[in-house]
């Protein structure tokens, strides 16, 4: 299910020319990278924690059915109910049924990427429910009627001025705010009354604990707590892969999640919810439901892309991706952008429909190097490309050019002769400028950046020189 019109190439081209988007990306681009580096450097055993987290997830995925059964049993013992949804349509119907049974009118939502994945909001609104996003970023894009462009900072593509314009248009009778603090405070006042009116609160589930039947959310605003404690009914939406065995295992992931996502030692709020309100509890919902969504995950579990199910949705891969940093999230066409989206979107929604996503990757490896659970992202993207070729999806012109290159590459003498000729040609084209601004056949590159002139020697010639001629 696409959330944007056109293909990836056209959306990327528009993003590169969007001055407001480029300004917004420029504001945030260095922030996450620098803060993560600082937070990681201060934790001596960060690499050991990455290894341990990957081991825990691999062990769970190896017996996922067992852990899901244990989790569902623990939720039931705590007074809640688990619903298993095969796909997005079934998940929507389950949630709509819970809301109908609760005679709900207003629904408050905490941040949930799974609810975005299953297109929950349009279904709820079509059924007549008033849906209010309470995460600040999600609230902003709800007002703008746009999808999220980042999984942890949904409105990262908006400038402060654009947010001020949105609030002024949707909050009549309030003075226009210009500062970040003022805008945050305005949203807090507007949303406060929504929490008390909500009949149903819907949140995501960063982690699900089989030991206790608990769901865990991590936030920086506290909106998730209000969404799930003040409403009569709490619904957790989560993928089936988010289960962990014990609370001890949770502690490993809490130490790497915030550092990888926002460069914090920990988020401001880590909330563990177990079932509905018990006798003597001062607050909490009367009903507690967990909707576990498969939607293609079981197929991944038994295939080549199983490692992707380790993902904890921290966003580190896209924060460090040069492609995402240049075009933002909407160009990817669905709710999961960046390197993770380059894999998940074709797997969930079709390799043919999203052929460009894995092929837009430069395979520079930064995403893989920072992934807190050591997902081999570049290897998975390369594998996905291979699967596209096997499925006959590669365009005929590209197949012809690659076949020609492959033939030349198997003729070492011809290959090196053409390489030396190409270097001389490119250096002549560059002249004294040292770079090439336009090159026949390379318009896709030179329309948005210059091509550096080669040094004058082939790689093999430089290698031999450094090795003393050997």
Automatic annotation (TrEMBL):
4Fe-4S ferredoxin-type domain mapped to chain residues: 302-332
InterPro entries the UniProt entry points to: 4Fe4S_Fe-S-bd, 4Fe4S_Fe_S_CS, FTHF_cligase-like_sf, Helical_ferredxn, LUD_dom, LutB/LldF, LutB_C, NagB/RpiA_transferase-like
Sorted UniProt keywords: 4Fe-4S, Electron transport, Iron, Iron-sulfur, Metal-binding, Repeat, Transport
Sequence intervals crossing the membrane: none
Biological process terms in GO annotation: lactate metabolic process
Pfam families (alphabetical): Fer4_8, LUD_dom, LutB_C
Any one GO molecular function term: metal ion binding
NCBIfam families referenced in this protein's UniProt entry, alphabetically: LutB/LldF family L-lactate oxidation iron-sulfur protein
Protein name according to UniProt: L-lactate dehydrogenase complex protein LldF
Organism: Niveibacterium umoris
